Amino acid sequence: MDKLKKIASSFFSWYERNYTFNLGIASFLFIWQLVHLYWLTVHVVFLRLFGVSLLPLEGIWEFLIIFADYTEIPALLSTSLIYIHSLTKKFTWRNILFLVFINSQWLHLFWITDEFVIQQFTSASVTILPIYLAWFAILVDYLELPVIYDTVKRFFVSLGRKK
User: Fold this and answer.
1) Over the stretch 41-54, which tens digit does the pLDDT of each residue have?
2) Where are the beta strands (DSSP E) in the chain?
3) Could you tell me if 108 and 141 are in contact, meaning their C-beta atoms sit under 8 angstroms apart?
4) Number of domains present in the structure of the chain
5) Which own/partner contact pairs does 90-98 have at CB distance under 8 Å and 24+ positions apart?
6) What range defines the domain where residue 38 resides?
């Protein structure tokens, strides 16, 4: 147990020394999620609500959206570390709430995937799971927005302190 404490202490010491760099990485990875959320809104949601997609993608553009979606895992990990680090400094319910928001994404990643949502919204066939789960998955995706804003804001505040 002492060895585990020593490892954690060493890690958070390194994390503190490189805090701005770590915030920058998390912010960069998370900004990619804005691309995915935009596509989700104007393609998937608009298709369901209005019967028209404003951003049907093919080829390289579809690849870029898939790439943005895959950056979500390192974004979740790096951003969770930001809030865990903040909690080691001072307990706040806001940090807990943001940790819940960000880690609810795992549910979306591994259970209610984008493919399920698209299938629910575009397929005439009936699936076993109810449609409200697709809307729930979209809501979970949008829970990233306040965390993205806060992460990027923390990065710029940290940059300002360095100067």
Assistant:
1) 898 888 888 988 88
2) none
3) yes
4) 1
5) 98/146, 98/147, 98/150
6) 21-162
Q: In whole angstroms, give the CA distance from residue 65 to residue 33.
A: 9
Q: How confident is the model over 70-81, as pLDDT tens digits?
A: 788 899 999 999
CA distance 161 to 163: 5
In a domain, 92, yes or no: yes
Q: pLDDT by residue (tens digit) across 12-27? A: 999 999 999 999 999 9
Task: Please list the alpha-helical segments (H only) found in the chain.
Answer: 2-17, 19-39, 46-50, 59-70, 72-89, 93-103, 105-110, 114-122, 132-142, 144-162
CB atoms within 10 A of CB 66: 12
Torsion sign (Cα): 87, 92, 95, 101: positive
Residue at 130 is within a domain:
yes
